[in-house]
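We store amino acids, tokens; thus:
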Amino acid sequence: MARLQLSVLAACTVLFMLAAPSLAGDPDMLQDVCVADLASPIKINGFPCKANITADDFFAGLKKAGNTNNPAGSIVTAANVQSFPGVNTLGVSMARIDYAVGGQNPPHTHPRATEIIFVTKGTLEVGFITTANKLFTRFVTVGEVFVFPRGLVHFQQNRGHGPASVIAAFNSQLQGTQAIATTLFAATPPVPTDVLAKAFRVDNEDIDAVKARFK
């Protein structure tokens, strides 16, 4: 009896280990395609399938540079399930990121995906920070690739003398993006000022001044 129980436990352990990789990303697809029905009132983990689909559902364009005239000096043009419904259930998405001179994609995280970028123009300083607060950073230029592990804080800064751009890929149909500064200083309702002041070891007035910049 003990040997049978041990065998069952071992079998369950193996099955769990085999299943674990699939739990790390988007759920596996159960049919050939499931184009997202973004207008459906049904709310599920992901999006329900659209009944009538065409080839256009599996097409997106990233050839046009975005407008970088904003405080960060960068713009992300996404090709995820919200604008590219054909990737629903496929566990992939892409984006184009453009940077003005001195532009930055500010420190942020993607809770549901690893990101890999391919530089198509310019020179960038890129990096990510581990949970042990170790910074890994380097310069990348045209034709080079850099990867940001899932969930870790990372950034890109244009260090060249002209505009820069990259193509990014994610192992999720909707990677999620949480910009650190915006999350802390522009949340709704706002994070209490005294909480942030204690965390950053500054006065309440300093936090209020930063919050005012994000309104």
